[in-house]
Specification:
The complex is a heterodimer of chains A (190) and B (441). Chain A is an alpha+beta fold. Helix content of chain A is 37%, strand content 9%. Chain A has a 4-stranded mixed β-sheet with strand order 2-1-3-4, covered by helices on one side. In chain A, helix 2 packs antiparallel against helix 3 and helix 6 runs parallel beside helix 7. The termini of chain A are far apart. Classes of the chains: A alpha+beta (190), B alpha/beta (441). The interface between A and B is large, with 56 and 78 residues.
């Protein structure tokens, strides 16, 4: 599985502009910081929400908005792993493989998901629904093993719960809410 | 041991993240008192309390605040307060709960801290993967703003403070304070040389204080109960309570708040429910993946405070991210796992770190796969020694310390692999495989 986050920028979709309705949001972002440069990350996030992934034309739009050379925006977009430089499946499944998760079976979960989603060497499923990635620590070590599907955390995974989650996603069922509350253990004062 | 739950006391109350519930639990109750105090008075109280930075370095918070130059020495520059919510040290997951369950406590702490250092605009830098918490923080900011707790003339005290939430995008290094500042300014998250320290010249070259979520969340309690009450908790040099993120081979992983100085053995055996049946302890990483590993003997002799872990085990309390490993763990694979993390996350600025982390990872893959030689261990040790303290930021040392400590305290595990390789029990390939380690069960 290679990462779409690390991939070189793929095809271009042609020049883009901010949708009219989102211009107030662009202005709001710009107003939060003393320099325009500082708006680069929030604007890249906004762009990724709109266009799903960032190609050079989107980066040029962000560069025009904050009045810097496009190369500076590209430098930022390529440094941060969560900015997508290539398209992914509808559901981006990121499984943590760092130590705390590895200690309690992350590798088995990844192998199970590879099979269940039937992904190719790039982690993409044939139906275009899923992209499976190995990622580093997502700060959910107390509820390991875990994965993040788009924005949502799924924790204390077993092969069985993985199957249920995948079945839910395939049937178009909305993603459940993140649920850190179940993982807080009441502290017994001794 | 009896002590108040300063940081996690509100977590079990339903909807503790909403303003009405938070207020009913006492959040913002200390704000008016604090805002009517002189800034220097607040700094002194926090100094006297002995509160230390909870992000990992353990630097005294009040002292950090006192480094901000006075209004007449700033040349008209503003002061910025940044809350470090980038929580990305493997094994650490406490700030996530602080922000999810009690965001208003953190905001109250930020308003008080901002008043103490003369800051009018602050930012919370939260890691990109916490996008759902980012949304919750904005909700909390809007609630607080509507209630007159943020903005101009807060509670009629004449104090102004505006707060913005800034979403990161997946870079471990942005938890380092100068990298966090670079990132906030809109650049690659690469650390800067110190001095100048951020308190003098930080974000946009203005005086900047960077504090961890947990540190700021402790401030309101200190204002309410006073420095002496806080100092009465914990140990003399490590006062107060701390959140510990406990993970790995334990029955009840989770976040626990205990007073500093709590026996490590009790934390593992009582709070965390001990190890799984029939297992024995192999090793513990006490404060996030970057700190030196500890042997069971050291674990039993240690208390959870900055001094004990350092003097007994030569390790650090760090962020309080404790990873427990039992006898089923393959420590060679565990170390290879960690080095893959560091090789992936190096910002690439300094050669020893950029090249060295990947090199160490590749050697460890060879050791793990039974195809290393005795020379490889010498090279590994040599690399770690030459990365530690030879880089702009502490990342290099953070990658070197696990290697150095694993090799020092668990050398036999590594030697056994080398011997297996020499007998031709090679199971791997000399080309470092991209596949990660399978560690433990």
């Amino acid at each position: 599985m290679s990462s779409p986050h690390d991939a070189p920028v793929a095809a271009s979709r042609g020049p883009v502009e901010w949708p009219e309705t989102l211009l107030p949001q662009v202005q709001d972002i710009l107003s939060r910081y003393p320099t325009k440069q500082a708006a680069v990350m929030p604007l890249l996030w906004l762009a990724q929400d709109i266009w799903d992934w960032l190609d050079l034309d989107v980066m040029r739009l962000v560069a025009r908005t904050i009045e810097v050379p496009p190369s500076q925006v590209h430098a930022v977009a390529s440094f941060y792993s969560m900015f997508k430089k290539a398209p992914t499946g509808k559901y981006l499944v990121q499984v943590c493989q760092t130590l705390s998760c590895a200690l309690v079976g992350a590798e088995g979960i990844i192998k199970h998901l590879e099979k269940a989603l039937d992904v190719d060497a790039h982690g993409n499923s044939k139906d275009g629904l899923f992209t499976l990635l190995r990622v580093e620590c997502l700060a959910s070590c107390g509820s390991a093993p875990m994965m993040q599907v788009n924005e949502h955390f799924y924790e204390r995974l077993t092969p069985e719960t993985c199957d249920q989650i995948i079945a839910g996603l395939r049937s178009g069922k909305p993603l459940s809410l993140p649920r850190p509350e179940v993982d807080v253990w009441t502290f017994p004062v001794s | 041991m009896d002590f108040p739950r300063i940081l996690s006391g509100n977590w079990e109350t339903p909807n503790s993240h909403t303003l009405p519930v938070a207020r009913s639990l006492g959040v913002y109750g200390r704000l008016e008192k604090a805002l009517r105090m002189q800034p220097t008075e607040i700094v002194q109280v926090v100094k006297d309390s002995g509160l230390r930075g909870r992000g990992g370095a353990g630097f005294p918070t009040g002292m950090k605040w006192s480094f901000v130059p006075g209004p007449d020495k700033r040349g008209g520059k503003p002061v910025y307060l940044l809350c470090n919510a980038d929580e990305s040290e493997p094994g650490t997951f406490k700030d996530r709960y602080c922000m999810w369950k009690d965001p208003h406590l953190m905001i109250e702490g930020m308003i008080i801290a901002a008043h103490a250092i003369g800051c009018k605009v602050g930012y919370v830098y939260i890691r990109g993967e916490f996008r759902y918490i980012y949304d919750r923080l904005w909700e909390a900011v809007h609630e607080a703003r509507a209630a007159g707790l943020l903005g101009n003339n807060i509670l009629g005290t004449g104090v102004d403070f505006e707060l913005h939430i800034h979403l990161g995008a997946g870079a471990y290094i942005c938890g380092e304070e100068t990298a966090l500042i670079s990132s906030l300014e809109g650049f690659k998250g690469q650390p800067k040389l110190k001095p100048p320290f951020p308190a003098v010249e930080g974000a946009w070259r203005a005086p900047t204080i960077v504090n961890n979520v947990e540190t700021l969340s402790a401030v309101p309690w200190i204002i309410e109960h006073g420095a002496a009450a806080y100092k009465a908790l914990g140990t003399e040099k490590s006062p107060g309570t701390k959140l510990f993120s406990c993970s790995g081979h334990i029955r009840k992983p989770g976040v626990y708040e205990v007073a500093l100085g709590y026996p490590m053995k009790d934390l593992i055996e009582k709070e965390c429910g001990g190890l799984l049946p029939g297992r024995t302890m192999k090793a513990v990483i006490p404060g996030g993946s970057s700190v030196p590993i500890m042997t069971p003997a050291e674990v039993y002799a240690c208390t959870m405070d900055y001094e004990s872990i350092s003097t007994v085990a030569g390790s650090y309390l760090g962020s309080g991210g404790m990873i427990v490993m039992d006898d089923t763990t393959d420590l060679v694979a565990a170390l290879a796992n960690l080095l893959r993390f560091y090789a992936h996350e190096s910002c690439g600025q300094c050669t020893p770190c950029r090249e060295g982390c990947g090199w160490m990872y590749h050697i460890l893959c060879r050791v793990r796969d039974n195809c290393a030689t005795a020379e490889d261990l010498v090279t590994l040790k040599d690399l770690a020694d030459n990365i530690h303290s030879k880089t702009i930021c502490f990342f290099g040392a953070s990658a070197a310390m696990p290697v150095q400590s694993f090799l020092l305290k668990f050398k036999a595990d590594f030697i056994a692999r080398i011997e297996a390789a020499s007998k031709g029990i090679a199971s791997g390939t000399h080309i470092a495989p991209p596949s990660p380690a399978t560690v433990g069960a």
